[in-house]
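Q: Please design a sequence for this.
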């Protein structure tokens, strides 16, 4: 399965409460609302958005990925109010080995409601059924208890800690690694 075949036109995905869709420049203000929150950006690889221009730059980068059939994030739209509340994506995809890694971020206003879990479960389903993956993993900083819980609630198994596995925000971070295999759920 080729990246270009799946991501030439990022498919719309839908769950009970969410629409997973392409980002657009119309999402700048809503993304800035959560991207500028230091609690939200505390455990991600990108810096807190300081201006709308920071957010615009990120969305333009994503749109460029869409236009070039590259792996790029879905925006998480909450059906209850039509707002963009986060993103979920495959951070990387190795089609030869049929493995990929998921990443996600969500507005603090929606923490603790099972919304991230719902989005990640749908992206996992898509990966196993449409991308022909056999293994999907996710990683988080060891201090990120909320992200660990999302991984556990989606059925992922804790594999271990990668010591000083990533240099982010001026220091080496220890990372928890979780994964799920296709034959564990399908």
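A: Design:
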């Amino acid at each position: 399965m080729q990246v270009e075949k799946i991501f030439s036109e990022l498919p719309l995905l839908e769950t009970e409460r969410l629409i997973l869709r392409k980002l657009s420049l119309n999402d700048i203000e809503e993304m800035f609302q959560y991207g500028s929150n230091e609690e939200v950006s505390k455990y991600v690889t990108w810096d807190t958005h300081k201006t709308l221009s920071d957010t615009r730059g990120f969305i333009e980068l994503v749109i460029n990925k869409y236009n070039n059939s590259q792996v790029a994030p879905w925006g998480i739209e909450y059906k209850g109010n039509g707002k963009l509340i986060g993103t979920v994506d495959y951070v990387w995809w190795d089609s030869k080995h049929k493995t990929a890694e998921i990443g996600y971020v969500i507005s603090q206003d929606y923490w603790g409601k099972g919304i991230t879990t719902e989005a990640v479960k749908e992206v996992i389903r898509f990966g196993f059924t449409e991308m022909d993956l056999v293994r999907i993993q996710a990683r988080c900083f060891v201090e990120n208890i909320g992200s660990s819980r999302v991984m556990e609630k989606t059925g992922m198994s804790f594999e271990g800690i990668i010591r000083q596995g990533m240099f982010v925000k001026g220091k080496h971070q220890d990372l928890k690694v979780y994964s799920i295999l296709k034959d564990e759920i399908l």
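Q: Thanks. Anything notable?
A: DSSP finds seven helices and eight strands in the chain. The helical segments are 3-7, 28-35, 38-41, 52-67, 115-130, 145-153, 182-185.
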